Amino acid sequence: MALLSIDHLSISFGGLAAVYNLSMEIEQGALYGLIGPNGAGKTTVFNLLTGVYKPKEGLIRLDGQDITGLAPAQISAAGIARTFQNIRLFRALSVIDNVKVGLHESFPYSTLAGVLRLPSFRKQEQAIDDRAMEILEIFKLGEQRDLLAANLPYGAQRKLEIARALATKPKLLLLDEPAAGMNPGETQELMDTIRYIRDELGLTVLLIEHDMRLVSGICEQLTVLNFGRMLAQGETKQVLQDPEVIKAYLGE
Amino acid sequence: MLNTIRRKYGFYIVIVLFWLLMTLLKSAGALSSHFASLLVPMTYYAIAAVALNLCVGILGELSIGHAGFMCIGAFSGAIFSLLTKEALPGALRFFLAFLVGIALAALFGFLIGIPVLRLKGDYLAIVTLAFGEIIKNILQAVYFGVDSKGVHLALDMTDFTLEPDGLTLIKGPQGVSGTPRDSSFTVGIIVLLLALVLVHHLMDSRDGRAIMAIRDNRIAAEATGIHVTRYKMLAFTLSAAIAGAAGVLFSHNVTTMTNITNYFNYNASIMLLVYVVLGGIGNINGSVVAAMILYLLPEMMRGLQRYRMLIYAIVLILMMLFNWSPALVEKRRKAVAWLKNKLPGRGKGVA
Q: Helix-strand-coil percent breakdown of chain B, rounded to 5?
């Protein structure tokens, strides 16, 4: 059974069908790409998957569990984590605290324990600190742990968003244009990191991307959206050679 | 090691030293009676500013109704003390009065938070303003007392009659009188320290991180699994509770609360906001310093009569410029760098 299955998903804003009748299945351990021209509805799909929008029609199942219409925090608990196209870090918090927020649900000591500094606070905070450092090290951000997130360079901010998402122990990781604004060197490094996340940490990754080198480089399967509808679906190589897809991207 | 102590406990030590200095000066008779009478208000306004900064700076929601929570703490604490004046020894009674005032302010914070925290920005500010005014106006209008037949509550003096053994608790516009004068500078400082420890410990825990994450980016916080409503309610309720503690100190200092409009109207809420903004939004220790200085300033300028509010306003503008103006911030940064160059011993190694 697929890890994520989307079944006839639709949403419209004021008569405009932003996503219409979209179905797709993502297998456990896949590296899956969602591509399409600007305004095709890719980010809307992410917002539907993470509970920011409630779908008008359709069904979303994660690992067999129906998560359609759940609140964002519940969906995070169910096992979907995401990054954002326009970076959304906790800018006034330090780099490591951004990751620690992601570990919030994994170490649930009580408010009272926190305020009174009970043993459970000390023990769990130590564990939180260790775990956050482990995650930061994956992205080589350990050195910058005490910097404010807002003061990180752009590429590092994108990486920190992924680190924070990983901290929530997701089954499925959604990356919204992870390579946007990165130079070729940074993009190459990012591709390696995404492969590491899939191969070593065993996550399933769904990503939106415009950088075709990254898409053809790491995505095994693609869904192409155009005007909210599915235009093509399948193996990356075949999809990218599809004349309809080329037309949508380049025009006639 | 020394650095850690300074970073963690430095401000607490400063407050204790301040308390020590003032207590010594007072017992030596070096303080004017006017100045000595300002010490307790200084502590409760500092506590109220800490409470408001928790709401404005840490939670990131602008409240202009915190004088209302102070008002609830003041009245409920005072009423408790009046009821138990004979029955309980002073220290225990005052301690319990704190618990009552804090609990009631927290309860109101929780109840008001339910509708208010659904709003954003300006709307939230306006509704908190309205709640603050409602609380103050109701408490100013109500007649409340107990006698052998039970509790009496009325909005009109003519409807309000008690048996001979009755005890009037709130007498309409004349308010509450006869509250024991339990507040002292020492108690004020202790409560201030407790409030500071509470807020600092909260900020430095998973709950504090969650609250600040919501402030910085609500959508990302939700997507990261934070229950936004729960943590907004937690911070707002705690903030109201601390303001309630400041209120208990207030009512047990003035002992007679008539004409409460002057103390708990929206001007008072704005004044607390001024303390928070000038002390630095999100800077809890800064609120304490700003509240103490800005409370003392107009009081110390009473001799200047009608010019004092003018001078006060100018000082506020100057402080604002000093703290926030980009040009001045840049000049300050350069001045600090220049000083560091002049003093080579400090510039290297320490930073």
A: 75, 5, 20
The answer to whether the Cβ–Cβ distance between A90 and B228 falls below 8 Å is: no
Q: How many helices (H) and strands (E) does chain B have?
A: 15, 3
Please tell me if residue B282 touches chain A, with a CB cutoff of 8 Å.
yes
Residue-wise pLDDT tens digits, B279-293: 888 999 999 999 999
Nearest Cα of chain A lies from the Cα of B239 at a distance, in angstroms, of 14
For each of the domains in chain A, give its residue range(s) and CATH number, in order of start: 29-55+65-79+170-252 (3.40.50.300), 90-168 (no CATH)
Can you spell out the DSSP letters for B241-292?
HHHHHHHHHHHHHH--B-STHHHHSHHHHHHHHHHHHHH-TT-HHHHHHHHH
What are the extents of the domains in chain B? 11-300, 309-351
Q: Per this entry, what is the length of chain B?
A: 351
d(CA B123, CA B62): 9
Residue B123 Cα to chain centre, angstroms:
22
Using DSSP's 3-state secondary structure scheme, residue A20 falls into strand
By the 8 A CB rule, do B59 and B251 touch? no
Contact predicate A231/A59, CB 8 Å: no
Distance from CA of B128 to the nearest CA of A (A): 26
Token reading at B287: 């609120």
CB contact under 8 A, A89 and B282: no
CB of B223 within 8 Å of a chain A CB? The answer is: yes
Q: Collapsing DSSP states into helix, strand and coil, what is residue A167? A: helix
| Percent of chain A scoring above 70 in pLDDT | 99
Pick from A90, A124, A148 the residue to mutate for testing the B interface (most B CBs within 10 Å): A90
pLDDT digits (tens, 9 = 90+) for B91-144: 999 999 999 999 999 999 999 999 999 888 788 899 999 999 999 999 988 999
Query: Quick one: which of A34, A76, A30 has its CA closest to A52?
Result: A76
Contacts of B208 in chain A (CB under 8 A): 114
- Is residue B349's pLDDT more than 50? no
Check: CATH 1.10.287 for B11-300?
A: no
Give Cα B229 to chain centroid, integer Å: 24
Whether the CB of A90 is below 8 Å from some CB of chain B: the reply is yes
Q: What is the mean pLDDT of residues B41-59?
A: 96
What mean pLDDT do residues A236-247 have? Answer: 89
What is the spatial distance between Cα A248 and Cα A236, in angstroms, rounded to a whole number?
A: 16
CB contact under 8 A, B201 and A114: yes
Question: In this complex, do A115 and B215 lie within 8 Å of one another by their Cβ atoms?
Answer: no
- CA B16 remoteness from chain centre: 19
Q: Which of A101, A116, A173 is most worth mutating to test chain B (most B CB atoms within 10 A of its CB)?
A: A101
Most confident of A21-25, B174-178, B258-262: A21-25
3-state SS class at A2: coil
pLDDT of res. A175: 96
Its ipTM equals 0.92
Are A42 and A20 a contacting pair, CB within 8 Å? Answer: no
Q: Which residue among A88, A93, A165 sits closest to B209, beta carbon to beta carbon? A: A93
**Does B9 reach chain A within 8 Å, measured CB to CB?**
no
* Backbone phi, psi, residue B196, to 5°: -65, -45
Query: Does B215 sit within 8 Å of A128, measured CB to CB?
Result: no
- The residue-averaged pLDDT of A151-166 equals 94
